[in-house]
Design goal:
alpha+beta, SH3 type barrels, Alpha-Beta Plaits, 3 domains, 9 helices, 10 strands
């Protein structure tokens, strides 16, 4: 009898809400059961990754979705267990929710975008993304409201999820393994254009991270206002290292131009006085 009396002992008694020791124990018990269930699901998904049945990025998305649904379910069950009437609660707070919704609609937009990202999986952990402002980074975390990308400078940026859905972004990881990039250079009028082409191709072919197939290409783009404009097109698998590769090319091209007396002109304007 003492145990029964202890379990039925009321801790909170307010209006129609009565919280007893039994309710508290039940809520805690449900928490540990669901926590253990999530751990079991996580282990099963990890085994599936090791066996090669599922991608690691897919497992993360699946687990995040399951986890959110489980904890929402836990909150609802817990509230009902302690006596909250959710129907009455939602009906009574409808006007408040409308007002809050107008004020924090961007927040809801981020949450909705996060759910879309997890379901569609257009963005996964490890993907290389280029944002609208040309920021390039690797996705290291996808949350329900925000995600994190790590830039080439090892800076972690926290990005609202709506940017991945609403903005025009480039997912380099969806591009083929061999990605094409370019490097533009201008030389002085009167330069030997065939020599310029040879120098650019040699610099590209001598770089270890630039593919030999497809071969680099040089395009004579335009007769500029101060220079003859060329574009060196090349392919590489090292998309994450593209800026160091471009830097190496610029060093090599500048050195070779100096050795071969090819000038890179300053911007200039000719004024003719009659």
């Amino acid at each position: 009898m003492k145990i029964k009396e202890l379990l039925n002992y009321t801790i909170v008694d307010f209006d129609n809400i009565q919280v007893s020791v039994y309710h508290i124990i039940l809520v805690i018990l449900i928490f540990f059961i669901l926590f253990g269930l999530l751990g079991l699901i996580k282990r099963v998904l990890k085994k599936a990754v090791k066996k090669g049945k599922v991608e690691a990025g897919s497992v993360y998305s699946i687990y995040q979705i399951i986890k959110y649904f489980v904890w929402v379910f836990y909150v609802i069950i817990s509230l009902q267990t302690v006596g909250f009437n959710l129907t009455v609660l939602l009906a009574g707070s409808a006007a408040l929710l409308v007002g809050l919704g107008l004020g924090i609609q961007q927040l809801f937009n981020d949450y909705a975008s996060g759910i879309i990202m997890l379901f569609e999986r257009n963005v996964k952990i490890g993907d290389i993304m280029e944002l609208e402002d040309k920021t390039v980074g690797k996705v290291i975390f996808i949350g329900l409201r925000t995600s994190k990308i790590e830039t080439r400078d090892n800076i972690v940026l926290i990005i609202p999820n709506h940017k991945f859905i609403n903005d025009n972004i480039i997912n380099w990881s969806h591009i083929e393994a061999d990605t094409r990039f370019d490097l533009n250079v201008g030389v002085a009028y009167g330069s030997d254009v065939e020599l310029v082409k040879t120098i650019l191709l040699d610099c590209a072919n001598n770089h270890q991270d630039i593919n030999k197939n497809p071969k680099p290409i040089v395009l004579f783009k335009d007769f500029g206002s101060s220079s003859l404009d060329f574009s060196l097109l090349f392919w590489t698998k090292k998309t994450w290292r593209i800026e160091p590769i471009r830097s190496d090319l610029r060093f090599a091209i500048d050195k070779s131009f100096r050795e071969n007396k090819v000038e890179i002109p300053f911007p200039q304007t000719d004024v003719h006085i009659k």
